[in-house]
Amino acid sequence: MKPKWNQWNRVLVIATLVLTTLSPARLWAQKPNDDQLLRARETVWRSWFAGDTKTLEELVPPGAIVMSGGEEKWKNQADVLRTAAEFHAQGGKLLRLEFPRTEVQHFGDVAIIWSSYVVDTEVDGKRSSDSGRVTEIFVWQHGRWTNPGWHTDATK
After folding, report:
1. How many domains does the chain have?
2. What's the pLDDT at 32?
3. 45 within domain boundaries
4. Residue 101: which CATH number?
5. What is the CA radius of gyration of the chain?
6. How many other C-beta atoms lie within 10 A of the C-beta of residue 14?
7. Of 138, 89, 92, 129, which Cα lies nearest the Cα of 111?
8. Which residues on adjacent β-strands are paired with residue 153?
9. Residue 148 lies in a domain
10. Which of 62, 59, 61 is nearest to 36 (CA)?
11. Number of CB atoms found within 10 A of residue 115's CB
């Protein structure tokens, strides 16, 4: 007597084949595509230097917490918007923005970006260079990445 193949047997065989081709090692080896995340990060930085408070307000939520090395006071969204507008009002210009090293960790809808950075700016004809490390938190919400917090420290 031949065994009968019902719909459930077919589903079971197909599921087994799919699962055996997706081994745990293969799943861990797949790296998420971080292009959109890194573009959002770049947009936050460039918007700050451009004094683009409208874009910053969309990407940096009201509950943001920002810590900078050497500064006692932690900042929030209002401080980020104010300092961006002040930099721009003083005629500040971004000359160079680079992230020589970047590592990304994902935890569900949260991504942490660890980077080194180099920034060259000009204010009132005076150029300055800043470099350091930054840890940035991004959250995937409403179909886009938002940046509710970061910590920077300058290197010597």
Report:
1. 1
2. 63
3. yes
4. 3.10.450.50
5. 23
6. 10
7. 138
8. 133
9. yes
10. 59
11. 20
Cα 134 from Cα 150, distance rounded (Å): 7
The model's confidence at residue 4, banded by pLDDT at 50, 70 and 90, is: low
What's the length of the chain? Answer: 156
- What pTM value is reported for the model? 0.78
- The first and second tokens of residue 114, run together, are 């660890």
Contact in structure between 79 and 68 (CB atoms under 8 Å): no
* Mean of pLDDT values over 103-113: 97
Q: Where are the alpha helices (DSSP H) in the chain?
A: 7-21, 24-29, 35-50, 53-59, 77-89
Residue 19 falls within a domain, yes or no?
A: no
Cα separation, 104 vs 138, whole angstroms? 10
Does residue 92 carry a pLDDT above 80? yes
Taking a C-beta distance cutoff of 8 angstroms, is the pair 99, 132 a contact?
no
Confidence of residue 102 (pLDDT cuts 50, 70, 90): very high
Output the CA angle 127-43-145, nearest 5 degrees.
150
122 domain residue, yes or no: yes
Query: What is the b/e burial string over 53-78, where b = at least 16 CB atoms within 10 angstroms of the residue's CB?
Result: beebeebbeeebebebeeeeeebbbe
pLDDT at residue number 11: 41
Structural domain including 77 reads: 32-154
